[in-house]
Amino acid sequence: MYIGKVFANREQSAPAQQRRSPLQPVGERGSVRLRDASEWILVTQIEAIVSPELFETVQIKLQHNRQTAKRNNKTHNYLLRSLVSCGCCQTACTGVTRNQKYRYYRCRQKSEVKRLKEGKNCSARYTPAQQLDALVWQDLCHVLKHPETIAHAMERLRDGQWLPQELQARCATLHKAQKSLQQQIERLTQAYLAEVIALEEYRRRRADLETQLQALTTQERQLAAQSHQHIEMTQLAQGAEAFCHRIQQGLEQATFEQKRQLVELLIDRVVVTQEQVELRYVIPTSLRGEQSRFCHLRIDYFGEHREPELGGFILSHLQPQQLLATGEIDP
User: What crossing angle do the helices spanning 199-247 and 148-156 adopt, rounded to 10°?
Assistant: First the structure.
């Protein structure tokens, strides 16, 4: 209705299931299930209240709010609440506390009764929350204090095909080749006018040269498009760098709530796979982007792994005892 369409047949009744064992999951509440969108019946179209793009944006925001709602954990503070995922089974991790002092991030697949019954629970260990929070905050501060790392990532985004030096070199090579072909066409024409070659030979050889010249012209247009893309990417990098300079001033005095707000804005996901931690950043490139997530910079574009400072966008080669639980609980 909000986007101007009214559908029927969106829901279907589901018979209630009897729970015969305490080991059987309770399941979803209610007896109504939403049908697949392909089964919906369009009844009528009315004037839209909001645009489809705005509607989708709001739905994504609502889902994000449900996942990160503070009411889901009112007792203990977790800096990476709702941001940690298990790299072994790609499931979200939740925060747990043992003996009121040992805090961990635990894969949800380790505690589901159904999987425990079937013997399919995840093999990932518990991740100490204090150590992981400290490592992620340290890396985040390093990124904000060294914004050139972001610019370097953007340069690698296109596999180096649009770097300024390479663009200039390729443009120079193309211009040189075009000039050579034009000179060959001129000499060929002079040879024909001097009756050195026949008309058919002249036409054939000129057509070949013009085909080559046309191919070079096409490549030149492609380079021009890449050059324009480089200008846009440079502007994005400058916007990200300006954001880093503005935000890095209060990092040392940031409270937990301020750290949490910054982590929510800049980190999309923290994936823990045994002793390795992968950080997926979301860096705003404009003032508007600081209010919502703008662009994703994945670790695939970062080849430099600095140790032991743990800088960059991936924390790798960590010792197992740094991230894995040892003796407090049975993983």
Answer: 150
Q: Give pLDDT tens digits for 222-258.
A: 877 766 566 566 667 777 777 788 877 778 888 888 8
Give the 3-state secondary structure of residue 279: strand
Q: Taking the model in full, what pTM does it have?
A: 0.53
Retrieve residue 320's tokens: 């197992």
Q: With contact defined as beta carbons under 8 Å apart, do 184 and 209 qualify? A: yes
Provide the sign of the torsion angle of the four alpha carbons 125, 130, 136, 142, taken in this order: negative
The DSSP code sequence of 241-273 is HHHHHHHGGGSTT--HHHHHHHHHHHEEEEEEE
- The residue among 16, 110, 17 whose CA lies nearest residue 325 is 110
In DSSP notation, 137-150 reads HHHHHHHHH-THHH
Question: Could you give phi then psi for residue 227, rounded to 5 degrees?
Answer: -65, -40
Residue pLDDT, tens place only, 72-107: 555 678 888 888 988 888 888 888 888 878 889 988
